[in-house]
Give the backbone structure.
Amino acid sequence: MLEINNLHVSIEGKEILKGIDLSVKAGEVHAIMGPNGSGKSTLASVLAGREEYDVTAGEIRFFENDLLDMDAEIRAREGLFLAFQYPMEIPGVGNTYFLRAALNAIREHKGESQLDAFDFLQVVREKMKLVQLDESLLKRAVNEGFSGGEKKRNEIFHMAVLEPRLAILDETDSGLDIDALRIVSEGVNSLRSPDRAFVVITHYQRLLDHIVPDFVHVLKDGQIIRSGGRELALELESQGYERLEPETSQAS
Amino acid sequence: MLEEFANREYEHGFVTDVEQESFPPGLDEDVVRAISAKKNEPEWLTQWRLEAFRHWQTMSEPDWPKVEYDPIDYQAISYFAAPKKKIASLDEIDPEILKTYKKLGIPLDEQKALAGVAVDAVFDSVSVATTYKEKLADVGIIFCSFSEAVQDHPDLVRKYLGSVVPYPDNFFAALNAAVFSDGSFVYIPKGVRCPMELSTYFRINASNTGQFERTLIVADEGAVVSYLEGCTAPQRDENQLHAAVVELVALDNAQIKYSTVQNWYPGDKETGAGGIFNFVTKRGICGKNAKISWTQVETGSAITWKYPSVILKGDDSVGEFYSVALTAGRQQADTGTKMVHLGKHTHSTIISKGISAGRGQNTYRGLVKVAKRAENARNFSQCDSMLIGSDCGAHTFPTIEIHNSSAQMEHEATTSKIGEDQIFYCNQRGLSTEDAVSMIVNGFCKEVFKELPMEFAVEAQKLLGVSLEGSVG
């Protein structure tokens, strides 16, 4: 569903991504790992449609569409979801109200009927169990005064309600204690399906103990230097990013 | 991304073609007398107008507000305009005027059927229709145009006119006292709770005609009333002056809630040309245990100069001010409130939300004053500003004067900026930028909107969305 070819991205003249190739098919979970400053979050932002980045070369296909031609809200309505590393607070706007507006925008795009408040509540009740979201967080303003863990859980809750085809998790594990990490991971795992793909961006391998990836890619200095299966993450864990070198000799 | 927003014409910019009977431009004692004569006023009122006029001539326009505009030529303004036909009932209303109201979304004939809202529609200077009057009269409530009140209830008018805002109060109040054309008058008798929301739609129509509304609301002891004021104006090329005065009198144990949604033409987006100058004096006075609550949503006008205030004279009285002021394009607003604590155990609350977009300039100016004998006065003030884009400005000038050490004051102020980050977050959930901005701004104003009567709250939310379209930059 997602094909990235030779993606080069700069911000303010500085090249961050230097030729990324990535192919993600429905049902797969890809982990992208890498040290700070390697370009992980830039990749997530570019996929989601942030405008301050310049794509200087390459292309991204999302299903049959040219992703780079689409505005951020269209990407979202087409089923691309980003769980933010730092979810934004929107004071005064109820979490449920916000999410219903979002879901209805997506449904409208797909030619589906609008959900009224009652129908929507049914959806919400079912989904909030997935991430053990406290009911009070529904009534409060979007992320306002939420703890770090609550914000991350709320992101996964949004994902559960919006049911994307491709979900990108940007450092969803950062700032989570072990219990919260488990809850969030279980939520993600319950959403895994043959029609849905995940791109999990993380610095640490511990998240991958919970969300087991099909593929692991190591991003360093704007390039994917290694790709492999789950065992690559474990190798990283023991060796660290510093000692990992591009797999020039073992490339097949 | 934020810079790209479709421009939208001011929705209410149209002109009704009705024959006008107007005075030629200019202002002197003869004009003041002529206005008074035209309205067949008693001698005491003519004299009051003349005193006000003479006093006004000694005054100069205030220069302390943080607003800029070219000098107003008061001799170039016509001080009286009225639709020619006399109107006795809705059926006789000029179809052109009815059409205007329909465009504004206030079809009078349907309003009659609408639950609980009585409308005293002001078309230029003369009230053209008053509905529900009979029903209100049954419980002794007087709700009529100011001119009618002068004829039918001269004693009440004489007793309270200028009692809260005396004509020497300020330059524009003095001008208004001299030349006021019409407005609304409300009297709620002792112990009566007004059975419906009272509502007035103001409208400025004739070109080059200043409008000088005067509203007086008296709630007798224990009376309760909620009053709604909504305004829109057609588009014009020359600035139009609006200098209104509103006086509220809440006697002991009475409650007055006064809500305004103001959507006058804000002027050309780029140059500011043609917008309304809104220089208004609004003030209320509370008796013992009385309460006055001002709620305003100010989205229109080129320049707004307005400080709805409460004099907490009676012990245990309560004053409230809830405000949303939005300035976009070249709009300038200098608005706020004065809470004057004179009585013991008096409480006041100020919640002000200023939103600036485009090249708008938004100023909160407030005064909380606690007099020497006002034991245990309490005030809570919260002034929040939101900036959209980088060419606008927000300013806050709170003043606190305390002459009694038992006073408790709380003041909170924040300034935030709608960031690309917030908008992007909404976009990423599938919401358009337009919806995102509207949602974020409405969330910001929530504490004020919840004070508005239901039908106004919905209108106010829409208004904010519309006002921001084309100006988010």
